[in-house]
Amino acid sequence: MTAADWQIQNIWLGLGISLAVFGLYYLVAFISRQKTNNSTDLYLAGRSVGPFVNSLAASSTWMSVATFLGVVALIQQLHLPFVYMWIQLILSVPMLVLLYGASLYRMGVFSSVHFVQVRYGQSLGYLAAAWMLLIMLMYMVGQFIGIAKVFEVLLGLPYMPSLIISALVITGYITIGGMKGATYNDAIQMVIMMIALLVPLGAILKAMGVTGYWFPPLGYGSMTDTLLAKIPTFFDLKFEPRFYLALFVALTLGTLGLPQLAQRVFTSESIRSARRVVPWFCLWVGLMFLGTYAMGFAGVYHFAQINQELTKEAADKTTLLLNLAYNPEWVSAFVIAGVLAAGVSTIAGLMIGVATVVGHDIVGSLRPDLSERTRLNYGYIALAGTGVISLLVSLNPPAFLITSIFWAFGLCATAVTPMVVLGVWSTRVNIWGAFGGSAISGILYIVLSPYVISSITVGNGMIA
């Protein structure tokens, strides 16, 4: 299978849809720029976002290129039962609001790092900032790489021009709009994602003869017996129990500490509004994650029926291959717009998170005498700088950064989440306990990872 098999024939169709949605993103960004007057507007959208829009924005921030491509590829290649793991991801915002979001909202802080500064002091705030920047960089580079590959498929350009074009376009609209622009664009992107994943998936399932095609997230059940006749081990756990235990812990505690999700809570117009985000968030994320699994299942079913095994590169394009096989070409072009929306929305949240840490938490603590206008300018510089640095790292990324999102979750669960949650709930935790716990456990986690000292790991391959 070659690139020609997953490229749409009419490149201008895909390019036209992509330009239209990016034009919409820029329009929203310019409108939001006019309403950004201070650092609270820039980083937290003026704490004025209602629960419905915020739920869409939080869900969109939580989606990524992996929603359409990476996880579907893992289901396609490894038959991993990721449907068992999604509940941990859905728990992220409810637990965040319950365990520390409301408390930090009352304090008026801008980020988790800002809370650490207030709770433990400036020195520990710098350690928290270092962990956050490392985690967000790992997360962001993977998204830039994924989007560049989508542009590569869409335009037929080599990876390097695709990366540069996509990174500059994305950095531009996020820098212009700040958190207000990112919030409303994220809400729009979530709607695009749900339509681009679920509606074409329903058409694919209908063409396959599935009776439950009208509700794609759970509509693939009638294919199960046929698939198991060809692949009896599909639903078996492929790895030893500690792999799934590690994922369970990393996805639950790691996502709890992710700064881009915490900031979504802080953008709410009130604590009550933040709480009302929770049920909507669970609905949107639940539909998308179950839809992703259904897409992966449909991919395995399709290629098992035609007795074709996919290479790793082709497996990443399973979503596109299914749409090209069963739907008109314009539908595939819209699906590509959905993939781009998934990656862009994640990058927006991460860029705002990095800019808040750099522009507000670090520069603001070093130069507390700065005027509001100067703080705002530093924020815009931090936003643009974040995009440029991520682009430079993505040009020739370390190998582990490409597959490091789950690992970043684990590092966050180890070095950040306990420091924040315990800081809210226990007055006995002091700076020395927080510093020791965060530094030692974070360094130990890195040393035990398969990426640093290859002779010291906790397993091999996917287990590690």
What does this structure look like?
This protein has 464 residues and is mostly helical. 75% of the residues lie in helices and 0% in strands. It has helices spanning 11-33, 39-44, 51-62, 65-68, 70-78, 86-90, 92-107, 112-120, 122-155, 159-207, 224-230, 241-256, 259-266, 271-305, 312-315, 318-326, 329-366, 372-395, 405-415, 417-425, 431-448. Helix 19 runs antiparallel to helix 21 (431-448). It is globular. It starts with 10 loop residues before the first helix and ends in a 16-residue tail after the last helix. 52% of the residues are buried. The model has no long low-confidence stretch (mean pLDDT 83).
Protein topology:
Blueprint lengths: L10 H23 L5 H6 L6 H12 L2 H4 L1 H9 L7 H5 L1 H16 L4 H9 L1 H34 L3 H49 L16 H7 L10 H16 L2 H8 L4 H35 L6 H4 L2 H9 L2 H38 L5 H24 L9 H11 L1 H9 L5 H18 L16
Helix pairs in contact: 1-10, 1-17, 3-10, 3-13, 3-14, 3-17, 5-14, 7-12, 7-13, 7-14, 7-20, 8-9, 8-20, 9-10, 9-17, 9-18, 9-19, 9-21, 10-14, 10-17, 10-18, 12-19, 13-17, 16-17, 17-18, 19-21
